[in-house]
Write a structure and sequence with these properties.
It is a single-pass membrane protein. Among the domains are: 132 residues, Rossmann fold (3-Layer(aba) Sandwich); 234 residues, no CATH class. Helix 6 crosses helix 7 and helix 18 packs across helix 19. It starts with 11 loop residues before the first helix and ends with a helix. The protein is of the alpha/beta class.
């Protein structure tokens, strides 16, 4: 007899921890209710008390350091919204509203003007200034503020894109700070919060993209996502073929697809045993609503310490690449509302190790499992994505399993590693402008420039090379045996046919490394692929262009404001690794006598000329 799905997975100490966690959640809920009823002077009293206690316990050097940076971080931390954050740096931002197909009203923000261009018409008709469009999307429990709540302008990616001549749009998920409205129901109703990543993929992303393209009179745009913003794009592109034609390139920062789980074994066991237990802990509306309460009553440095401790406990992130004053500026903007159901969806993905749609028929804690014989949860078919994909991930990010991710993505995917980066570093690290932004600019230059994109398309491998290689394996009746990254067959298939990242890329603690996914100049037999360490049917743009994968130097300067493409000095440092292609030459060919049949340009014409010349000699 099979063990009970919930009881059989928890040890005695984990049951005790579970009970204590539920008690703490209950106590926090009571405190939150009491805080809402307290008058403002009482809340101010608690705030001042926490400030005095923190200053008393901290060192004099720490107090001097905070006071020195206070003038930088405080205005950003106290800014009320996206428009105000942009105004701090002198940028004008527009606010837009898009209605989704199921009635939610989503807030969009637009940065389309350099300083001094505020009165110029941009992408507004035939006589307006034409600019390429970039769309940026935030992560889980966030909103568009996270892209601009940064203490130095040189590290604000939207501002740099604007200065390079892009029309930049930033999206928001339903339920968050800017999208907490629907024409069908109120946020006070449980129905309003009945959404998961499925709704983000089928409505929020495609409806936002369509609105932006209609407003700007453009046929396509470039997509930059962070964390869950990448997962939503993976899902949306996989289920909507027309959307692939509307996105030139998908740049995924700290990509998320099928995380292994959380770092804390107790929490990981708790949520994987039965993800629906989160509904018991947090209800069926917004999750972690008490976060705003703690922010209101705690002195900012204490709130920062609390967030850091939580991130270390859950994900083992240390936050050493983010400066203390950047945390003081950004952490007040870190949290935004989302549904408990969307978090439950993530734990279903972790539990099943599959990037799947929400499971509405998940079994209860006391039900017996019948396996997958009669019911299969639909997976997002991410291998069907046709849009070029560029992954930029952190080597110290516990939420990224790059091998599993690459197994689920198409062969034209390109991956780049920043070896010592964690998840949030891709937003706020002190060196993000040197180690991450050059990859973003390079990808945009390659896939949004018409001439460069035509060159890239000419050098794409033949259709038969783009197909996934076939694998011989013992017969199985489980159709997901090869797709599940935890199955023995999948592990053997992947390890035998896909070279590991560590074996193909040198890595240092402080350098950015690139990884090209598709890698074979011409079709190889299984024997040849075994000798070369490359899977049959894989193809590399680096080999075609004659450029080897090399390390990027860490000391790359930030791009020049006002330039429209990647500056020349960045190209010198970062080269054309993985994304841009080198000189065109034949991928493969067959020679027979004097008549040449090949893929390269002109090979067929030369063969026909030689054949005609030979025929004339015979006559």
């Amino acid at each position: 007899m099979q063990p009970l799905p919930f009881i059989g997975r928890l040890h005695a100490y984990e049951f005790v921890t579970l009970v204590l966690s539920m008690v703490l959640i209950f106590v926090e809920s009571i405190i939150s209710i009491i805080t809402l009823a307290l008058p403002t002077p009482i809340i101010g009293f608690f705030y001042r008390g926490s400030r005095r206690a923190f200053n008393h316990l901290s060192s004099p050097a720490g107090r001097r350091s905070r006071n020195k940076k206070k003038n930088v971080s405080s205005p950003i931390a106290q800014a009320q919204d996206f428009v105000e954050l942009c105004a701090l740096y002198g940028y004008y931002a527009e606010e837009h509203i898009v209605q989704t197909g199921d009635g939610y009203l989503l807030g969009l923000h637009r940065l389309g003007w350099r300083k001094g261009e505020e009165h110029v018409r941009v992408n507004s008709g035939p006589d307006s200034l034409k600019k390429k469009v970039v769309y940026m999307h935030h992560g889980l429990l966030m909103n568009s503020d996270v892209w601009v709540c940064i203490t130095e302008k040189e590290r604000v990616l939207p501002f740099l894109l604007v200065e390079q001549g892009y029309d930049v749009w930033l999206g928001n998920n339903r339920g968050n700070k800017y999208s907490k409205k629907s024409i069908n129901c109120s946020p006070a109703d449980v129905k309003f919060w009945n959404f998961s990543m499925d709704q983000f993929a089928f409505h929020d992303i495609p409806d936002s993209v369509n609105y932006i393209l209609e407003t700007t009179h453009q046929s396509s745009l470039s997509y930059i996502g962070f964390s869950q913003g990448t997962a939503q794009a993976f899902a949306a592109l996989s289920v909507s073929p027309p959307l692939n034609d509307k996105i030139d390139v998908f740049i995924a920062l700290a990509p998320a697809m099928s995380p292994k789980g959380v770092f804390s074994s107790v929490v990981d066991t708790f949520v994987k045993a039965s993800p629906n237990l989160l509904f018991l802990a947090f209800g069926r509306r917004a999750i972690l609503g008490s976060a705003t309460m703690w922010q209101a009553i705690l002195y900012p440095p204490i709130f920062v310490r609390l967030i850091d401790m939580s991130l270390t406990f859950l994900f083992n992130w240390r936050g050493q690449n983010i400066s203390p004053h950047q945390k003081l500026a950004a952490y007040p903007h870190l949290y935004s509302f989302t549904s408990t159901k969307s978090v439950v969806h993530w734990f279903q993905i972790m539990r099943n190790a599959k990037f799947q749609m929400y499971d509405d028929e998940v079994q209860g804690p006391l039900s017996f499992s019948t396996g997958g014989k009669y019911y299969k949860v639909a997976k997002f078919p991410t291998r069907n994505i046709k849009t070029p994909i560029v992954l930029v991930y952190g080597g110290s990010d516990s939420l990224v399993d790059i091998n599993v991710m690459l197994q689920q993505l198409p062969a034209h995917t390109t991956a780049k590693e920043v070896s010592h980066y964690e998840h949030l570093d891709f937003l706020w690290a002190s060196t993000v402008d040197k180690l991450v932004f050059p990859h973003v600019f390079q990808a945009l230059d390659t896939y949004t420039d018409p001439e460069k994109r035509r060159t890239h398309q000419r050098l794409q491998p033949p259709a038969q090379l783009m197909n996934r290689p076939s694998f011989s394996a013992p017969y199985t009746t489980d159709e997901d045996a090869y797709d599940s990254p935890t199955s023995p067959l999948a592990s053997r298939k992947f390890s035998e046919n896909l070279p590991s990242i560590s074996s193909r890329i040198p890595s240092t603690p402080t350098s950015t490394t690139d990884r090209v996914i598709a890698s074979a100049k011409e079709p190889q037999s299984p024997a040849a692929s075994h000798l070369t360490g490359k899977t049959a049917g894989w193809w590399s743009s680096d080999e075609i262009g004659g450029t080897d994968v090399e390390r990027a130097r860490e000391s790359t300067p930030s791009p020049r404001p006002g330039s429209r493409g990647t500056p020349d000095h960045l190209k010198d440092n970062y080269g054309l690794k993985g994304i841009s292609l080198g000189a065109s030459r034949p991928v493969g060919g067959v020679s027979k006598g004097e008549v040449e049949i090949g893929v390269g340009a002109g090979s067929g014409a030369e063969g026909r000329k030689k054949k005609k010349a030979k025929k004339k000699e015979g006559d």
